[in-house]
Automatic annotation (TrEMBL):
It holds the Pfam family Cyt-b5. The gene is LOC106753408. Belongs to the cytochrome b5 family. InterPro entries: Cyt_B5-like_heme/steroid-bd, Cyt_B5-like_heme/steroid_sf, Cyt_B5_heme-BS, Cytochrome_b5. GO terms for molecular function: heme binding; metal ion binding. This is Cytochrome b5. Keywords: Heme, Iron, Membrane, Metal-binding, Transmembrane, Transmembrane helix. PANTHER family: CYTOCHROME B5, CYTOCHROME B5 HEME-BINDING DOMAIN-CONTAINING PROTEIN. It comes from Vigna radiata var. radiata (Mung bean). Its main location: membrane. Residues 5-81 form the Cytochrome b5 heme-binding domain. SUPFAM superfamilies: Cytochrome b5-like heme/steroid binding domain (SSF55856).
Length: 122
């Protein structure tokens, strides 16, 4: 069955950062919260400050209730395209770390073995 999910690239979010057109990215999902900005108990400024990037951390830090999480689902318009390139430095760093974690682990491992052999020889 074909899926009806809309996929957005992280760059798409940067075109929706205003009070009249506001999208946020939380937990891999994209939400159009334009209509909700004025009603948000935490104010519109916190949401506007979290646009154009992954706002999951800010959202979780605010300790949103279960009802807040249920409420937000009605504003969901799609998901982040998993193949879209990541933009922030921390995301890039995390991606590289996941990809190349074996390199520092191997270097440390070899150093430990060489150090051990060297000390035994003494
Ligand atoms: C559709 C998205 C969102 C919905 C439906 C939503 C809903 C709510 C609700 C209902 C509350 C009241 C407390 C609670 O029930 O948890 C709240 C508080 C709050 N929200 Fe959100 N929120 C959304 C997005 C965000 C985002 C993206 C941020 C941060 C960037 C944020 C920051 C806050 C903060 C800081 C409070 C605390 C306000 C206070 O206690 O003074 N919210 N939100």
């Amino acid at each position: 069955m074909p899926t009806l999910t809309n996929f957005y690239a992280i760059q798409d979010l940067s075109h929706h950062k205003t009070k009249d057109d506001c999208w946020i990215l939380v937990g891999g999902k994209v939400y159009d919260v334009t209509q909700y900005l004025d009603d948000h108990p935490g104010g519109d400024d916190v949401i506007l400050a979290a646009t154009g990037k992954d706002a999951t951390e800010e959202f979780e830090d605010a300790g949103h209730s279960k009802s807040a999480r249920e409420l937000m689902e009605q504003y969901c318009i799609g998901e982040l395209d998993p193949s879209s390139p990541v933009s922030t430095y921390s995301e890039k760093f995390m991606q590289l770390t996941k990809q190349y974690w074996a390199v520092p682990v191997t270097v440390v491992g070899i150093s430990v073995v060489v150090g051990f052999l060297y000390l035994r020889k003494k």
